[in-house]
């Protein structure tokens, strides 16, 4: 279930900064039609850092309702306080999600043993599977392969989103974990290489913009059709770069807005609109892909 192309879905907002549930439903339906394998609701790209608990929970609930059983939904439920992560996971447990994506605690920079105890406590407190999320560029700490291997022994810790962008890290981790432990790329730019070196899929920002292409890329790679997968990746690889010209999700929201997929590119402060040079760059890439006029 947790393999293939999972979109790290944006949370669309109205001009007043409130969640735009009409646009959210349209995005979910877009991914169902495009063949996206799954949705991650209210992860980093969904602005989890600035949605209070009640809103966070409601966005996940509505995403599941809009999916209507046609596509699985995983909920972002990470926090830098273990008690908060447990509380949020428990609140989301009955929403219909298939599991949780839980980030390495940020800012407080826990030791490796602290990470083990943190994720073990979360897994023990809920009935659904948990996927670990290692993104040292945002958390300032790096979960090492040996730590992942220790956590992979827990029956409810079923996978890892690896956003290091380091293929060697994947190669170091794979021999240490069970065969059914899922490792997904969290870095679009290196996702094809990740897939061809034993990775099982991607939690993708790029899939917000070209969901059909990312889903097909993952399928071709899984079937060993590397030439076809490479051709798809070569066509969209500039997006992998341009979507991170400014901190995520600034650029994907701008791109979706220019494509007419969301009515506004509004973000929650302290995130603000992209600089003009970034706007022009991604608009040129979208035009080259014939995604805008």
TrEMBL record:
Annotated residues for binding of pyruvate: 45, 203
The keyword Amino-acid biosynthesis is assigned to this record: yes
Pfam family, one: DHDPS
Active site location: 133 (proton donor/acceptor), 161 (schiff-base intermediate with substrate)
Primary location group: cytoplasm
Subcellular location, record wording: Cytoplasm
Catalytic reaction(s) noted: L-aspartate 4-semialdehyde + pyruvate = (2S,4S)-4-hydroxy-2,3,4,5-tetrahydrodipicolinate + H2O + H(+)
Positions of transmembrane segments: none
Listed EC numbers: 4.3.3.7
Keywords of this entry: Amino-acid biosynthesis, Cytoplasm, Diaminopimelate biosynthesis, Lyase, Lysine biosynthesis, Schiff base
Pathway the protein takes part in: Amino-acid biosynthesis; L-lysine biosynthesis via DAP pathway; (S)-tetrahydrodipicolinate from L-aspartate: step 3/4
Protein family per UniProt: Belongs to the DapA family.
Subunit structure: Homotetramer; dimer of dimers.
Role according to the record: Catalyzes the condensation of (S)-aspartate-beta-semialdehyde [(S)-ASA] and pyruvate to 4-hydroxy-tetrahydrodipicolinate (HTPA).
Protein name: 4-hydroxy-tetrahydrodipicolinate synthase
Organism expressing this protein natively: Alteromonas arenosi
